[in-house]
Design brief:
mainly alpha; Lysozyme; MGlyc_endo_b_GlcNAc-like_dom; Mannosyl-glycoprotein endo-beta-N-acetylglucosaminidase; signal; amidase activity
């Protein structure tokens, strides 16, 4: 029995001294600085970095990598979205800064409630005396060949005939001419009270011989914008047909607010006209001094000046028409001279 126990102990010690399968290979390769090697002692399917894997393991690894890349892409997309939101907010801030704030027109002009509904046609609200008061307060000596009382009477007469509001039409004339002080491209001898044909660059526009003709042309031009009807008097406005046809195509304008960007290139043109009219309504309803001064001498001088200026205009227009003919004639002469010189040389 003692011998048997001794033998069993010896076998157990021998077994303990035997190396574990795969352990030596791993330790040896580690000592050599090489990569670990998979041996039969390792469990099947074990993943060791840097060593080839079986098909199932590669699929699992790819799936894991794919999930990792998806997570990264999501993170990147999230960061890009956040950056995009930041840029969008920056753009919004920039656009908000560049957009000009709306002007408070009531702080600039005297505008009644519902002023955008004031019609071009209708009856006068202001009186003739109030209109005269406003003109005299800004210009006592009119350079247009008539006195204050006459110009007011002419506007009331011509406008009421066509159904146009005379006080508003006169307010427009005061705005266009600077209370008949002029100072722009249009001169007093033209009797152009509404800027007919003044397209800028020093172009003077239409001209009329008398004050009545100038007032009538103004009223006719307003009628072209606002009505299907033809004027009841002889057509004097040189731009009536063009303006009337345009309005028939695009739509008639029945309110003063519709004249913004149409009659004049400005978004506050109607507000300026209405502001002038409101100033007229604030004037006292009594006849001002100097309303009926004599302007007959001035009227004759303006008529002579009108004839002189119109002759000059006609000459310029004729020259513009004939200039191309003269240039063509000169070019033909030059060609003939060159041809003759070439023949002489030969």
């Amino acid at each position: 029995m003692k011998k048997m126990t001794k033998m069993a102990c010896a076998v157990a010690v021998a077994l303990l001294l035997l190396p574990v399968p795969g352990q030596a290979a791993r330790t040896a390769s580690a000592n050599r600085g090489g990569k670990p090697v998979v041996t039969m002692g390792d469990r099947p399917g074990a993943v060791v970095p840097g060593v080839g894997q079986n098909k199932n393991d590669t699929k699992q690894n790819k799936a894991a990598k794919g999930s990792n890349t998806e997570i990264k892409n999501k993170k990147n997309s999230g960061t890009q979205a956040s950056q995009g939101n930041k840029t969008d907010t920056k753009r919004e801030v920039k656009t908000k800064q560049t957009v000009a704030p709306k002007r408070n027109l009531n702080a600039i002009y005297i505008l009644p409630k519902g002023y955008k509904d004031i019609t071009i046609k209708g009856k006068a609200e202001a009186t003739k005396k109030q209109a005269a008061q406003l003109i005299v307060a800004n210009n006592k000596n009119l350079p247009i060949g008539c006195n204050v009382g006459e110009i007011v009477d002419l506007y009331w007469e011509e406008a009421e005939r066509e159904g146009i509001r005379p006080d508003m039409a006169l307010s427009q004339a005061l705005l266009e001419t600077g209370y008949f002080n002029f100072g722009g491209a249009v001169e007093p001898w033209q009797h152009n009270f509404c800027g007919l044909g003044t397209v800028g660059n020093g172009v003077q526009g239409a001209a009329f011989k008398t004050t009545r003709e100038g007032v009538r042309a103004h009223i006719q031009h307003l009628l072209a914008y606002t009505s299907h009807d033809m004027p009841k008097t002889e057509l004097i406005d040189p731009r009536y047909e063009k303006a009337h046809n345009l309005r028939l195509q695009k739509g008639l304008i029945t309110k003063w607010s519709g004249l913004n960007w149409t009659w004049a290139m400005g978004g506050e043109y109607a507000e300026k006209v209405i502001n002038t009219h409101q100033l007229m309504l604030r004037c006292p309803d009594k006849e001002p001094e100097g309303m009926w001064t004599d302007h007959k001498k001035q009227q004759k001088e303006l008529e002579k000046l009108y004839e002189k200026k119109m002759k000059e205009r006609n000459k310029l227009e004729q020259y513009k028409y004939e200039k191309p003919k003269h240039e063509k004639y000169k070019s033909e002469n030059r060609k003939n001279e060159k041809h003759k010189n070439e023949k002489r040389k030969k």
